[in-house]
Amino acid sequence: MKNILILLSCILSLTSCKQKSAEVKVIETIVPEKIELNQENLVKNELKITGMTCAIGCAAAIQKKLNSTPGIESALVDFESSIAQIVFDPNFIQEKALDTIVKSVGDAYTVIQNERVTSFKDLTSK
């Protein structure tokens, strides 16, 4: 009797489901082409960032995001000084967009100063 109930419940569960079988959808992704930056157009900005609590997670995540952004040639984020040093082409990315990129990594991060500089501060000397 127990076997008959199990068999009936299996049959009912197979026939009562009205869902279609899973469909496989192909999602196309567009990978942006690598931007060739004109070395003559590159400028330097230093950003003062608040909200970072560690070098390995916070500073590294911000640095990775900045370095993966088209239009930015290089970025270095120093946790101890709370400074990001960015070399970028303003023809591809605006200075204010740098603030938005940092904020997109996490709501805890805020750029409190974003200024263009002719040379970067030495972050290694204490």
Strand tally = 4
SS strand fraction = 15-25%
Q: Which fold name is given in CATH as the topology of the domain at 43-117?
A: Alpha-Beta Plaits
Name the assembly state: single chain
Major sheet strand order:
2-3-1-4
**Helicity, as a percent range:** 25-40%
**Rounded to an integer, what's the Rg over CA atoms?**
26 Å
What CATH first level of the domain at 43-117 would be assigned? Alpha Beta
Low-confidence stretches: none
Shape verdict: extended
- Main sheet overview: 4 strands, antiparallel
Helices and strands, in order, run as HEHEEHE
Mean pLDDT: 83
CATH architectural name of the domain at 43-117: 2-Layer Sandwich
User: Helical stretch count?
Assistant: 3
Distance between the termini: 82 Å
Structural class: alpha+beta
